[in-house]
Amino acid sequence: MEQHFELIIVGGGPIGLACALAAQKAGLEYCILEKGCLVNSLFNYPSNMTFFSTSEKIEIGGIPFVSNNIKPTRPEALEYYRRVATSNKVNIHLQEKVTAIDRTGDHYSVTTAKSVYTTNNIIIATGFYDIPVKLDIPGEDLPKLTHYYKEPHFYAMQRVLVVGANNSAVDAALETWRKGAEVTMVVRESEIGHRVKYWVRPDIENRIKEGSIKAYFLSHLRVVREKEVDIETPEGPLTIPNDYVIAMTGYQPDFKFLQNIGIRLSDDELRQPVYDPLTMETNMPGIYLAGVICGGMNTHVWFIENSRVHADQIIDAILQKKGVAS
User: Fold this and answer.
1) Domains in the chain, ordered, with CATH?
2) What per-residue confidence (pLDDT) applies to 299?
3) How far are the Cα atoms of 61, 176, 209, 295 from residue 300, in angstroms, in the given order?
4) What is the pLDDT of residue 88?
């Protein structure tokens, strides 16, 4: 049996929750559909992660986020968003993946693995964390290589290669080294990334300088094998022994999902979805974008702290269409 809502929000992350709170405040009948757990991407972040933003900058719905330190940790964020969802009785269906969105007359049909819904308005707030940017090299499919890093203990006393030089790569390199791993970094640029957290940068630079962590700059990983890897360096090709590869090469939105809905993407390498920056409405009437997905491949433009405003923009646009003052 079909269920109808005025608004369906696809994605139960911080921005999806912010949209739900704004919809709730406006009196709109809504539902969040989330394919995983509550704030699924944050759950899958490294266990010891500390946010770059301060706690007040990742608050949603005007609900205070109090953390032990100025910059909150992953566990604190998980608890905050859980309490926001439960205390506000947010209508969210977890572990329910959206498989299709189809236009039917003046409304949309949203199909999931469990049910079918109809709605007049949809917010896509699915983030970008699910699909890693692949290296496209031989051996990338070996079990020893991962594009996700959770915690360091597994890598204790192992030979670990970390690909990348931004926050996730630097955290993986430092944490595994501190647990006794022999760590090598492969960095395609000439230095550690400019976006690395300012309190972490001196740590990684000093570990590299003293030789505790070996780093090959202006270099590329070329081949992964069971017990070794091939690296292309400015001095020529190099083969080193290796047990595990942590490839922190970044992630990308599900472009196929967007295109299947009918949302246009830019023709350049950024593949940015087309939307109105004032209302966040896409070329598909009644379908809006919120959060980091708005940047396409440029995943470092939108964060929780600067995309929280998308929630109010979208709800205001929906109310205006209904002829209701926001």
Assistant:
1) 3-131+251-322 (3.50.50.60), 134-247 (3.50.50.60)
2) 82
3) 23, 25, 28, 8
4) 97
